[in-house]
Specification:
It is built from 13 helices and 19 strands. It has 458 residues and is of the alpha/beta class.
């Protein structure tokens, strides 16, 4: 639908959210200027230290489908149907993500996805990208956006009516919003940081681990994960405390790193030939949750990580950012050209859901590093799959978050009820044959409702 309003829209940040939003807006006929502080990543190698691949799931795919980007992105995406758990002895156990073992999340290259979105956005005459332009100041009273050219140092005021801040977790626009009255803001760092390591491809570009799984080495207070890349390599991420006995602070020598990996990740070590180099060369990055409110001020709104940075343990940061774009697009269609109303409804719809996924992502960290290898957790998971297979309206929280577009807050609510039902059913049991299906049916009907379904599941 081509929008009648002739507003000019400024996007700050040409990351994942900014580039996708540019495509949405271009398709509605707006004039769009995208200001990005970095050089054009299609011409220059990306900076190190940012995650190389990301898990894409239904919410993100929906946004890509709406903008006609799905086919192109899916060509470079690798489906992952479950978690492959590596225990300390090197044994591997596969845990499917869904009841039918068919639903999957996809590993995609962050850089390639970002480049594709930029190139598509730029293919519209009404979109212009301006690289090497850093946001210096946002004046909310006047709507004036001031940028600086990184090379020349020259300042420029962006002409435009509306500004969408897609400038990431450390958003400059949000920083200026923090100086306005009654702006709520919190940032909370995990005691863990992360470091990326690489498992290169095997002979002839083969995969040295199962290609269609997200690999996890859960080790209690820390863990490593690995996602596949199209060239046969895997990007591993070690999530590890900054301080303490097992910590980055304590791994200061080559010998210490080698001993630590041999002890905890023995099956991975032979697959990471540059372990020591990677460990000491790649940056150690931190993990933050950022919440703020409001997300809107005058002609300005925050989108993606700028509004809600979350920890990566549900693989939803980008998916949530893409869902912001979808919802904002719907609001524009419904309420345009009344930008006040558009922003108000966008914020109302998204804030509560961003808070829910932030909480679920933090909870999932404990599940991934700790409980995926725990007997009780595994038994509960098995019962959960059985409930899903036997009772239509029963969906696990993971399914609701990753394979449906049920609002995150509703997925969170249903997930908490699921847990209560499961705890009641497995209390004192060790054998799947002992499950009381009559009680299960009753509890599901009473607590979750008999008529809930999500598309794609029968
Ligand atoms: P960004 O992608 O950070 O883009 C912000 C852009 O703004 C950048 O291009 C930046 O250069 C630019 N910018 C910043 N400041 C300025 C300024 N002052 N002026 C102009 N431009 C500026 N999400 C998932 O869905 N699945 C995953 O599996 C997943 N894994 C992750 C793993 C890790 C280790 C991490 C850290 C994150 C992961 N995420 C994942 C989250 C995901 O990366 C983010 O949620 C997503 O990148 C947010 O997109 P964005 O466009 O809001 O921000």
């Amino acid at each position: 639908m081509v929008f009648k309003d002739n507003s000019t829209i400024n996007l700050v940040g040409a990351g994942l959210a900014g580039s996708l939003m540019a495509v949405y807006l271009a398709q509605k006929g707006f004039s769009v200027n995208v200001y990005e502080r970095r050089p054009d990543m299609r011409k220059k190698e990306a900076e190190g230290g940012r995650s190389i691949n990301l898990a894409l799931s239904v919410r993100g795919i929906h946004a890509l489908t709406e903008t006609g980007m799905d086919a192109e992105v899916m060509k470079m995406a690798i489906p992952m149907y479950g978690r492959m758990i590596h225990d300390e002895t090197g044994d591997q156990t596969f845990q499917a993500y869904s009841r039918d073992r068919k639903s999957c999340i996809y590993s995609v290259s962050r850089a390639e996805l970002n480049k594709s979105l930029m190139t598509r956005a730029e293919s519209y005459d009404n979109v212009n990208f301006h690289f090497g332009k850093i946001c210096e100041e946002m004046d909310f009273a006047s709507g004036k956006l001031t940028l600086k050219d990184i090379e020349s140092g020259e300042k420029l005021v962006a002409p435009g009516d509306i500004t969408l801040a897609c400038d990431g977790a450390f958003s400059a626009v949000r920083y200026d919003m923090q100086k306005t009255p009654r702006f709520d803001f919190s940032q909370s760092y995990l005691a863990h940081g992360y470091k990326e390591l690489t498992i290169p491809p095997g002979p002839g570009g083969s995969f040295l681990l199962e290609k269609h799984a997200l690999h996890i080495w859960p080790r209690g207070n820390f863990m490593m994960i690995a996602l596949p890349n199209p060239d046969g390599s895997f990007t591993c991420t070690l999530f590890f405390p900054f301080e303490g006995k097992n910590s980055f602070a304590n791994l200061q020598t080559k010998e210490a790193v080698q001993v630590f990996f041999d002890q905890h990740f023995s099956d991975a070590v032979p697959l990471i030939p540059d372990l020591i180099d990677d460990f000491f060369t790649n940056p150690t990055s931190s993990l933050v949750t950022i919440r703020c409110y409001p997300w809107i001020s005058g002609q300005v709104a925050l989108l993606g990580d700028a509004a809600h940075a979350i920890v990566p343990f549900f693989g939803q940061g980008m998916n949530a950012a893409f869902e912001d774009c979808t919802v904002l697009s719907e609001c524009i269609d419904q309420y345009g050209p009344d930008w006040g109303k558009i922003f108000e409804v966008y914020q109302e719809k998204r804030k509560v859901n961003a808070d829910a996924i932030a909480d679920m992502a933090l909870e999932n960290f404990v599940e991934m590093r700790d409980t995926v290898a725990d007997e009780k957790f595994l038994f509960r998971k098995k019962v959960e799959h059985l409930l899903g297979q036997n009772f239509g309206p029963y969906f696990s929280r993971y399914e609701l978050v990753s394979f449906s577009r049920v609002p995150y807050a509703e997925a969170y609510r249903r997930g908490q009820i699921n847990l209560e039902i499961l705890e009641k059913l497995i209390d004192g049991l060790t054998d799947l044959d002992e499950i009381d299906y009559k009680l299960a049916g009753q509890l599901i009907n009473e607590r979750l409702g008999a008529d809930f379904s999500i598309p794609g599941f029968s």
